């Protein structure tokens, strides 16, 4: 089951990994060019990395999480290849649990891109950035973003078309962005902010050891609920 889940998702994972490394690596490398445009001083490199982590990188990571949630038994039924998976001597619950765990593992590795990329690129450009601080940001993005991964798994359990689940996931992200950013006169980077602005401000204090615990826990609880819902939907479907 684990091998099948890996073979099904390996190319999506590889493409997402390459995309995140290139985009975020370029953002960090071009810090000296971008910081003045964002109204930041040359000595505010740490703040720049924080901002890019929780805006551009976070958005593209959420897109990757939705892509990792594609596939599954419903998609296999549409393509006529679900008989093999259903013939395996395992329950549908266990099969979907393995698929979810594989997706979560891949999403975690994608979330750790800043922890690997930022210190290296910063060093090449004559700057310094602590690995632990970058890892701190990555862990928060992963834990808070599990909600979006579970959302992708839920949609892939409801709709046969793989592109449909991703499109609905993006539409949901956009809707949540509008709802979580009330009329403040401020517009998130790229027109879409994966977390509320208040939580972004709170996350800035991660560098001093303060975590947005309530925000992260609420997202984990929502992820568990959506994941369980996706499993029950597949259990009740007639294949």
Tell me what you see in this structure:
This protein has 239 residues and is mostly helical. It has one domain (2-236). The protein has eleven helices and no strands. It has helices at residues 2-29, 31-37, 45-68, 73-79, 82-87, 92-111, 113-124, 131-158, 162-180, 197-203, 213-236. Helix 1 (2-29) runs parallel beside helix 7 and helix 6 (92-111) runs antiparallel to helix 8 (131-158). The longest helix has 28 residues, at 2-29. The radius of gyration is 19 Å and the shape is elongated.
Labels describing this entry:
239 residues, mainly alpha, 11 helices, elongated
Summarize the structure.
The protein is mainly α and 239 residues long. It has helices at residues 2-29, 31-37, 45-68, 73-79, 82-87, 92-111, 113-124, 131-158, 162-180, 197-203, 213-236. The chain has one domain (2-236).
Oligomer: single chain
Sheet with the most strands?
A: none
Strand content: under 5%
The rough form would be described as: elongated
The beta-strand count equals: 0
Distance between the termini: 19 Å
Low-confidence stretches: 183-200
How many structural domains? 1
Q: Using only CA atoms, what is the Rg? A: 19 Å
What is the overall pLDDT average? 79
Give me the strand/helix succession: HHHHHHHHHHH
Strand-pairing-aware structural class: mainly alpha
What percent of the residues sit in helical stretches (DSSP H or I)?
over 70%
Count of alpha and pi helical runs = 11
């Amino acid at each position: 089951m684990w091998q099948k889940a890996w073979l099904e998702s390996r190319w999506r994972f590889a493409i997402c990994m390459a995309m995140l490394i290139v985009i975020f690596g370029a953002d960090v490398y071009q810090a000296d060019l971008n910081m003045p445009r964002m109204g930041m001083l040359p000595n505010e490199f740490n703040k720049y990395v924080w901002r890019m982590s929780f805006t551009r990188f976070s958005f593209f990571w959420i897109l990757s999480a939705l892509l990792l949630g594609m596939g599954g038994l419903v998609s296999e039924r549409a393509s006529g290849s679900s008989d093999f998976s259903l013939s395996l001597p395992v329950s549908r619950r266990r099969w979907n649990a393995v698929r979810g765990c594989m997706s979560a593992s891949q999403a975690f590795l994608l979330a750790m891109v800043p922890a690997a990329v930022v210190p290296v690129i910063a060093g090449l450009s004559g700057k310094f950035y602590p690995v632990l601080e970058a890892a701190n940001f990555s862990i928060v993005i992963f834990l808070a973003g599990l909600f979006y991964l579970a959302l992708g798994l839920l949609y892939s359990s409801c709709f046969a078309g793989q592109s449909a689940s991703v499109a609905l996931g993006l539409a949901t992200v956009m809707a949540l962005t509008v709802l979580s950013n009330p009329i403040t006169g401020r517009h998130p980077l790229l027109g879409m902010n994966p977390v509320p602005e208040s939580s972004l401000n709170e996350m800035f204090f991660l560098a001093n050891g303060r975590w947005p615990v309530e925000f992260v826990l609420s997202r984990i609880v929502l992820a568990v609920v959506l994941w369980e819902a996706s499993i029950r939907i597949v259990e009740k479907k007639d294949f």
